[in-house]
Amino acid sequence: FNIPKTQGKVANERADKFEDVVQQRIDRTRWADNHIRELRQRTLKVAGQAVTDIDAIGSFEGTLLLVSCKSIPYSREYDQGVHSVIRNAASTVNSGVSTWVTIVNRLSENPSGDNFDFTKYERIVGVVCTPFAVYTSDEKSLSTSVGTLRWACSLDELIAFLKC
């Protein structure tokens, strides 16, 4: 499925739809948590400062899963291996992982904020999810966040993890 490269309103709508799809997939598994789901797409604040919004969320057996979605379009150029296209996708994912690691660590250190309370969870984990596997050699992006799930994962990888 080839999606044209777009910006602006169309890109934002595609991104919103991808976040919805990821959340729907979480909601079909044992990771579904209607109570915590209320925090999805709301800005979380600590000491009056915005920390992040969460694109998709779930929990299971004391673990809170926070998902940052990157709706990178799969294009003919990516499929053909055009260097700049692959490099840009990898850069987006690697930067997203770096940012998300920092945010997840901050929330782990401050599990209770102005408008959220994660203190009942034993651990908070995160991933950056894309519609397809993005080629990268970044050590952090390829490292595991929880179980066998990598910090940078495709939707298929996330679904497989959620089913385990």
Tell me the strand percentage band: 15-25%
Structural class per helix/strand content?
alpha/beta
Order of helices and strands: HHEEEEHHEHEEEH
Give the oligomeric state of the chains in this entry, treating copies of one chain as homo and distinct chains as hetero.
single chain
Strand order of the largest sheet: 3-4-5-8
Task: Evaluate the radius of gyration.
Answer: 16 Å
Record field, number of beta strands: 8
Instruction: Provide the residue-averaged pLDDT.
Output: 93
**Which of globular, elongated, flat, extended, rod-shaped describes the shape?**
globular
Unreliable stretches (pLDDT < 50, length at least 5) are: none
Sheet having the most strands = 4 strands, mixed
Distance between the termini: 27 Å
Percent of residues in helices comes to 40-55%
Count of individual helical segments: 6
Q: Can you put this structure into words, describing what you see?
A:
The chain is α/β, with parallel strands linked by helices and 164 residues long. Helices cover 41% and strands 23% of the residues. The strands form 3 sheets. A 4-stranded mixed sheet has the order 3-4-5-8. A two-stranded antiparallel ribbon has the order 1-2. A two-stranded antiparallel ribbon has the order 6-7. The longest helix has 27 residues. The two termini are 27 Å apart. The model has no long low-confidence stretch (mean pLDDT 93).
